[in-house]
Amino acid sequence: MQPDSALVYYQKLAAIYKNEAPKQYYFTEAKIAEQLINLRKYTQAKRLLDQQLRASVHLFNPEVEARLLQSLAKLAYAQKHYKVGFRLCEKAEKAYQSVEAITLDKIDLHVLKADFVSRLAYFDQSLSLIDTCMATLQTHRPESVRVAYLRVKLYAIQSFIELGGKLAFDKSLETCYKSLKLLKRLPTTKQNLYWQSRFIYRQGLIYKNQQKFSLAYQYYRVALQLNKQVFGNTHQEVASSLLQIGRLYAMHAAKKYSLGRQRAITDKPIKYPELDSAFVYYRQSLKLYKKKNTCFKEQIGRIYSNLAYLYTHIRKYEQAEEYFQHSYEILSKVYGKTHPEMVPLYNYWGALVCVLKKYSQQLEILHKGLLSNAKNFNNKDIFVAPPVKDYYHPGYFHAFCTSKAMAFANRSGDLKDLKASLYHFEVADSLIKHCRNRVFRKQSHLFTASLINQANIGIQGKSAVYTCSQLYRQTKKAKYLEKAFYFIERGNSSFLMQALAEAEAKKISDIPRKLLDKERSLRKQIVYYEHKQGQNKQDSLVRLNMDYETLIAQLEKEYPRYAQLKLDVKQVTIQQLQQSMPAQTATLMYTFGVQSNNYVFVITKNTAQLVLLPKAANIQAAISHYYNQLSSEKRLRNFAPASYQGYKALFKPAEKYLKGIRKLVVIAPSLENIPFEAMITQLPKSLQQDDFSKLNYLGKHYQISYHYSATLWYKAINQVVEQTVAPELHFLAFAPFSVGKGAVFNTIRGANDYLPESGLEVKSIYNVFKSKNLSAEVSLAKAATKDYFIQKVKTAHIVHIASHSEANTQHVGLAKIHFAEFNHQNQNFSGCLLASEVYNLELNADLLVLSSCESGVGKLIEGEGVFSLARSFLYAGARNIVFSLWEIDDYYTRELMVIFYQQFLTHSMSYSRALQIAQQKMVAKGVHPKHWSGIVMIGK
């Protein structure tokens, strides 16, 4: 950690060895070269090593040759010449073949080779080398400090691959945790603290990629303090830490304020607090690097590109262009015009020229980015893209392809550019499919879902759907309409579809029950420890996740049908949808982007239309106002105009294609909290009254249900449910708080009070089932326990929970339903069923009713929709789900639910029709739409 001092002592040692011990002399010369590398004296190190290689030839000692080549490889690594370094490693390995002993130097070479392979983006090969090295280290003394640090190096490579190559964020966090745990068992030296800072920084980087910015700041600052402790306040490692904190602030601002999306160049400069902080850290970093010497040109060049990107965000475009040019001049001299280290510059620069509407220049810059990020691709034609697997970093590959696709669509609108746009969107989509098949953890799947969403929102102007619509308009070829449908559906809950496909694959792949029980048990334990507090939480999670992944690998190997089916997520086509679509039914698929990229795809039995909607800002303003007026129970004079505006923004453009339609299936994951039922098609003659019964609601004309995707709805309507015997229970209901005295407007099902109407609700429904000679069971008050629910739920055809529930918009797994054991005052949450626990249930319910508050509310994930209790029950096996969008009143909910059940049990109608009638009966009584439209349905 003090290379200048080490250099002096090694030089003295070399002088002693020179005439007495030639082998040790050359080993020491290699050490001298490595200190020169640490001091960034690359030319001097290269000269020394080349000289010693020539001088050592007369020894005919392969170990000396290998050791000198190994140091040359380390020099190549420091200079980021990874291909050269890999070839030097292979030469050193060849020389080591004559050395029988498995020395730590030889293992160190294999570690270095694994690092080179990872940097060359051959991730699976690198992981294989890591496993081999770890196994070899087991044969050496475990208490050896050098052995421990070799393991630490291997963990560093592994976490790099998991983070950047595999997009396995949670797994990378676990690898960092294991390494930090190992480091804390070693003596507290500067070297130890340095490695701790590296892994703590990497943890921060992972949290940054997961957009958990508070955690990222925390870890970045700890890493900065450790670097100051080790190196002092002016070292280049401190400068690097300051630069990374600046980047974190910049990314936080970009996410928080939707920066990076195309804007008019006439916009006035604007200030954002996080960007101000980014400027401060960048300038501090720049000042430290400039104080050093000319060795840090590339770091200075990178800071210039980061500063230029900030100037782009605050709309100071001249300064941005100037800094990008400075950055390019510096970095291209160091690396050349196409090198992996040039990739971030081209990525940032492309955003500026997009804002300036210089689309041809943008395409040239982005294509240079693709060339720099590719291992073998060297075609300079901007109309082509590299093969899907040819990249150093998958995230940049996707960014360049999608940005090029938007640039082509922005540039001219002629047929050639539009076809090139679609081609690049398809290449980016193929990359996501390739990556998704290799990621495992939930967070990684959600990250790829957000990448899918970028094609649909069109962050730099034009979306994939826009491109397809323009190609269809110019050519009238139906394949482009089908492509538009494909991209919209791609952005609809792809993670949920993947998860359901895997769950189904387990059921139909002949996996023994014993292994399935083990898999479910491990999932339950993982959920338990995810929410547990205490010292052993992380150790247990790491162990359980390793066990779980080992088991899944075993299932994939021993049951290849499972491995195939879990990845077989085939999207429905327009033709398939129409063939299965019931008469008088239409699906409305919504997609929202920026600027004018907003569409609704209207599909009926015989027609398919892609309809343009108003601009994003207009739609957002309309639906937000509508939701606020509705959910806060505003008077008619406020509610009616807001409702009508929502109707005009979302529904009116599609209405002319819905003649003869009686049932609507709305597919819009980002609109899950917006009930279409309470939109009105015209304003009343007078707003100075409060008669809500006279309003012309959409729910009066259409049965309305919702779903996460067209594919899932298609599978639902074609699903053949095997019921060789009658269900044990036709109806199973729970009302844990069904005592006390009720009153209208007095109790809501999201508070912690008693819910007397919930008891009347389930008993009334129970009586309807019994009158039809159908088996039914109701658990009230203290009998309505969580354990009994879990025990009985898989035996019931219809499940009904009338209770309190709580949404969680930050930690989706912590949304909960209260059962009898719950006690809010002493914080006993053991009586709560968490959303994360619901995923581990096995349901066979045709209908599940969550008669509780906010059961459809949760965290909105880009490209996935809302993670809520309702969604978790769909995954667990419920085929149709009734749930709430906000806090619901105990009295009105009871009234609506009883009517709902009476309708489909007495008149043999569909659930959606029964819910429509129940809502309209509430309308006829003049009940405010808040009390009936907030209860909606997902299903067929």
From TrEMBL:
- Identify the domain of life: Bacteria
Its keywords, alphabetically, are: TPR repeat
Family matches, as SMART domains: TPR
Entry annotated with the keyword Membrane: no
Q: Which Pfam families match?
A: CHAT, TPR_12
> Can you say where the TPR repeats lie in this chain?
197-230, 301-334
**What PROSITE patterns would the database entry show?**
TPR
Q: Which residues form the CHAT domain?
A: 647-940
* Protein's UniProt name: Tetratricopeptide repeat family
Recorded source organism is: Microscilla marina ATCC 23134
